[in-house]
Every structure is written in structure tokens, then in C-alpha cells.
Amino acid sequence: MAGNDSNADDPQKPRQRLDRRAFVTAAGGTIATVLGAGTIPFGESQAATKGKWDHEVDIVVVGSGAAGLSAAVTAAGEGAKVLVLEAAPVAGGATARSGGGYWIPNNRFMREKGLTDPRQDAVRYMARYSFTQLYDPDAKFYGVPENNYHQMEAMWDNAAPAVERLEKLGAMIYRADDSYDYWEYCPENKAPAGRLVWTVPRPNGGTAARGGAELIAQMKDWMDKHGVPILLEHRATRLILNKKKEVIGIEATTDEGAKTVTIRARKAVHFGSGGFILNPELRLNFQRGPVFGACGPMTNQGDFVYMGTEAGAKLGNMQNGWRFQLVLDQALQSPALATDVWGVIGDSMVVVNKFGKRVVDEKRPYSDRGEIHFVYDPQHQEWTNLVLFQIFDQRIADLSAGFYPFPPKGTSAPHVLKGETMDDLANAIAARLAQHGGKIGGFKLDKTFNANLKETVTRFNRFAESGVDEDFNRGGPTFKYDAQWHERFGGQEAVKANDKPNKTMYPIASKGPYYAILLCSGSADTNGGPVINEKSQVLSTKNQVIPGLYGAGNCISAPSGRAYWGGGATIGTALTFGYIAGMNASKEPVKDAT
Amino acid sequence: MTNCMLVRREVAAPNDPTAVLLALHGHGGGVDQLEPLCRVLHSDLSLVLPQAWRTLHVHGMYEAEDPGHSWFFNFAEGSPEPATYGDCLMELENLVYDIREHHSSKVPIIVIGIDQGAVLALGLCGVVPDYLAGVAAIGGHVPKIKGWAPPYEDFMGLPSLLIRDAAATQGSDAIIQREMQDCNADVTLCRVGGVLKSPLLAAAPLRQWIGPLLRAPTSVALMRDCAAVED
Hints:
The complex is a heterodimer. In chain A, strands 2, 3, 4, 8, 9, 10, 11, 24 and 25 form a 9-stranded mixed sheet that branches. In chain A, strands 12, 14, 15, 16, 19, 21 and 22 form a 7-stranded mixed sheet that branches. A 3-stranded antiparallel sheet of chain A has the order 5-7-6. Chain A is of the alpha/beta class. Chain A is 30% helix and 19% strand. In chain A, helix 5 crosses helix 6 (146-169). In chain A, strand 10 (247-254) and strand 11 form a beta hairpin. Chain B is an alpha/beta fold. Chain B has a single domain (7-230), classed as Rossmann fold (3-Layer(aba) Sandwich), CATH 3.40.50. Helices cover 29% and strands 19% of the residues of chain B. In chain B, helix 1 crosses helix 5 (203-210). At the A-B interface, helix 1, helix 7, helix 10, strand 20 and helix 15 of A face strand 1, strand 4 and helix 2 of B.
């Protein structure tokens, strides 16, 4: 493993001939405001002027990720005529790019194993994790907002029935797992392992689709067989309202915006259209700290924020997202397509800040770990942990070679910095930060970094020998997640080679070479937007239901608030509230068309 | 100094390189996939073997069987997802500039790709045809991204070897050949059964095609050595 310098602004290099914007546009990455997203009265729509709709169905679903297709399959299974619009040239949204796990409390595998997951304890766990600053076990609704409380109840009540219904229909195959939740030791969490389930590949599904892509493929297969179409490259732009302000249809653009299509939704329009992580304006204005990148589709532009607010929807949870960490160099190069650092690999490894000090148990879940970047320093007017530094030695670089973000053996990796001594490594880090310059606000190492880093390593090595991390309890007995996912992310070889009492820690070598990877904040997507109720109906600023409008997934105000309840909480809530939307929307009355 | 963030393995030729071979793995492959093939082509080739960013592991976590890496999302057969495809193509464009920076302009750059790597190799024909001495695609297709056209529609007579797996690509051979010819590529087409699963089967046609592209004539002795390795 050897680090290379990176200089994206090197004047010696030929000017790049390819322009990323063309690919982003082709992938559906146009910002919604450019398309004039909002609402329109029926009388002003093309359906009125042309005297006909281009399509007419019971339910229009916007977006083809888990939140959309769960609703589409459920509603079609209830007998509704459904049509799905997808802005991108491929189906699947963020789900298709994910691992494809979903967090399902009280799922059938848990019941079969005799693992009890009591409803009220699960709700208390969700409430406490989502709103740690509000939680009061003795207060009504445990002190959390009433609407969120009811959503959490709905999550427990509907998550297992949702996936069981989809399974029964033949639209999903899934399996059990023994993964720990992301707050496994929370006193309210009475079922800390077993809620995560995974998609199982179809027997004859080939190798192209895995994880979330396979989940999408299974639901899409079912839809193909049952005549539920997905119109690709159809970007929903305007909700069509009747005189009663009910949602009765939608306008979409296609052919690169050249053509407008109107679709009548006799009963409802459901949104599962993704968050706004790739919309720089919304991200800057609503996210509560610097987020460098994401891994979702280009269509995560916040379309529903614009259409929903024009329809009168109340917004919520706009400051939050499904957090993780990214490799800074990759995120700066390709902010929309960075690869997530799900686990910080290694035992002879620490993560330090600009002062050379550890700031977190490096083995905690990516979601909570991702929040550590949002620490603001009023003394120096900067985000102290804007960039963190993963420091490791040759031993673990070899043992976990090839486990991202460690490169395979015998390769060079531009994102890995190298130094023969800790001082050399610090110099390499300083030089790399200087190269990034304005892209990171001139963020620099503090002058105490070198001395503190050596002290940090000495102190960590003592912890590694004793097995007890006195500062952050890394891999401690209460943190069962740490050891479980340490092995999954970093490989068994590294665990077998560790003869110390705590497998997540091993002394960092006294001699180099040493390596560093620069880490920054990222999000799979945001999870704020129009607020829904426990029936997945979108609520207005007056807390009234907007008739005919439903939502689920990352485009709405997440029922989970700030929290990532456990692995698969993203898709779990998307599937569940998509299912709820599908069930309820299919029972809606037909609305007046004008 | 690099603008390309891809992880890569670089194998220097023991003597002056006769060419630099940029080898692009396929869907589910990795940095090791094409190295054996490249090594039997000629002993004085420098190799650059980049690896895609995207692991096919579920969240990158340990699995008994390593499913490899993927360059771009390809949920529908034959149509790369534009953003991920474009991203990789941009990285590879930068990698070609890196290679040219490190080697004299007398050292030809030849791209070999398999499966998804072949799609990217053929994509590079429209981006940096003036930097390349030849492109060999094992499988793959000419990528089409709606609303995007490559910077170069004239491939400047670029020697292009299309190695088609007789079983896997039947029916598309004539199409891809015509598409490349329409772009003024100097196309050689050959069919090798099973080559997508066993890339080493491409060694013989590749060696024959690559010979005239190398900087110095291939010596008989070296060819014999390479053949022995393959046998």
C-alpha cells in the first residue's frame, strides 16, 4: 500500500474533456426548481386544455425505490390500478444502491425463534433514540411529539405485516440475521438483535443484482407480471388539484423536459421520491452541518419538498439524514457517488481530530459516528471535526487489505497517505489538507497535532493491552455491535490474528510505516420533507390531511427523527410506510376530476 | 501527481516497456482479474490495473465468497446508469493522462477491458482516441447515454479488437462492429467461446493483434516464453 499525491488543479494536466454535468443530467439530476415543480389547478393543466389525460389510474406512485414500490405492490395487490413514475433512466432509487437490509421489529424470524419484541418497549426504544433530548418515560407519549409517537406505534404494528404481505404476494424473499441494533444497550431495547432482515437473491436471478437492487428486482418482477408499469425518465413536476384542493393527478416531464405528460390519479398520489441530499441549495439551508457527499441517485433533489410545500404541507426533520462517513478525497472528487465508510476498519487503528485526539469509539455505528463531524468550536469559529483522520499501521493494512477503504495488497491508493514515522504521516496529512484548500475552508491541523497524536497512540496501546478503552469503551461488553460489525466489516483474518483481550483493539506498531485516511461526513440521503401521519397521509401546516396525498421514505419527515434505529432502518421505514400508504390509498374514494 | 482517485496496481516492465497496458476488470472482478492475461501477452509490457470503487459486498462486509467490484450500476441489460458510468469514465480519462505523464509519448497506451471494463474501454475511444494506440474489448457494447455524446465521434482509425464470447454475445457482434466502424475505428472481430468466464482464452487473438502496436517488434524468444506460460 502506498499513498499518492492528488492534485485536481494541477496545471500540467490536460484539461478534462468529459463534463460531469452531462452525465448528471442524463441520470435525472436536474434541480426541481428548474423544472418549475409545484402545484397547478386542474383548469390550468394540460389535461384540461387537451381535454384528456395521458394516463388514468387509481394511484400514481412517484419514485421506484422501496417506499414507492412497496406502496405500488400493496395497492395493486388490493386491486387498485397503479402507475409508477421514475425520474431516472433506471428503477430503484437509493434502495437499489443499498445493502438491501430492512429493520423489521417483531419479524417472523424473531417470533419463530422465540425472541420477544414487546410493542411498548420497542416504541419506547424508538422514542428515546429518536428524541433523546425530549424522552421522558413518565410523560404522555414519552415526551416526544404526538405525531411521531403514533408513527412509532404504526411502525411496530405494520412493519412485520408489510413484509409478510409482500412475501405472501411473491414480491419479496428475505432472511433472518442476528445483527445488533445501533443502540443495542439502550435499557428500553428489549430485543437488541434480530430486527434486521435481508433480501435473499432469487434462485434464477443471476448475479447482476444484489442487496437492494435485488429487492427492487423482486418487486419489479411482481409488478411486470401483474401489469403495473414503471415509466422511466418521467420526472413528476406538478401536483394537479381540483377545486376542493384535493390531489387528483400529476404532471411529469419526459424527453429531457421537452414533453409534458398528465396522469389522472382517481384516488391518490403517493410519493417515495427520495430526499434532497444532492440539492446543494436545500442541503446548505436545512442540514445542520457540513455534509460532503452521498451515495444515492442523482434524482435525490428534493422534488417533494417543492411540490409538497406548494400543496400546503408542513415540513419536518429537514436537519437530519441517514449519516455515515466518507473518504474526503473521493467525496470531493465525486460528491454524489462516494462509497460509504460503513465500518472504520482495523484494530491497530485510531481516528483522531485536528488536535491529534480521539473523539469517538471508532467502532460505533456509522450513523451515530457520522454525527461527530458536526461539532462546532466557538474558540476558533470552525467545525472542529470537519475532517477526521484514520491512523493505522502496516499490520492491519495487510490483514484487512481489500476491505473498503483499505486497498488490496500490492496496489497504490490515492486516498491513503503514508509516512515512515508519525511525524512524516502528519506532514503528509498537512500537505493533503493544503491541497484541498478552499474546498474544506482552509481546514488545517493544529500545531499540537504531532505531539498529541503520539500521546494518543501511546494511551490507546495501553488500552489495547488491557482490553479496556478508558476513554470511549471501544468494543466494551455493553457495545455488542462493536465486535460484531468489526469482524463483518474488516474480515475474520484480522480478528483471528488479534490475541489481545478486546478484539477491536491491538497496539499500533512502534515502527512505521503508518497510514492515514481522511474522513468526512456524508449521508445516504436526507430524511426530511413533508410531514405524514401514521396513515402515511401528508399533513398541512394546519395539521390537516391533504386529501389524496401520501408519502413514505426519504422524501418525507422520517418517523425516526434523528435516529437510525438499527441496520435497515432506512428501508424498513420506507417499506412499512409505503405499505401503509398502499393499503390506505387503495381505500380512498374517487375524487372529482375538476 | 494524480487526478484519478482509483485504486490501482502498477506493474513495471523489467526493461523499457513496449507499451503500457491499461486493463479494466469486469462486473464482479477486481484488480487481479486481468493480470494473468496481461502477463502472458508480452514480458515487456507495463501494466496498470485499476479497480472500481464500488464493492459488491453488502455494505462492504465480510462474506465467505468475495463478489468483487462493479464500475457502474447496470440494472437494465445494456444500459449503464449514466452518473456512475460517467464518473468511472472521467476517472479513467484522468488515469490515461497520468500514464502519459509517466511514460514518454513513444510508449503506446493500449486499453483492454472485459465486460463492464469493455464498455468503459469502448467509451474511452470517444474520449481520448489521440492518446491510445489500441483498444481491445472482451464482451461489452458501445455505451449509449441519452443526451450525451462523446467528445470525439471520429476514433481516428484506432485499432480495435472486439473479442466476442460466441455463446454470450451472439447477435450483437455485427451491431457493435458496425458501430465502431461508423466511428472510424479499425475493427478486428474474433469469437472465442467461454472467454467471458476465462479471460486467458483471449491470449492468442490478443497477442496477434497487439504485436504490431508495440513500440519495438516482438522478439521470437519473448513470444515463445509467453506461449510457454500460457501452455
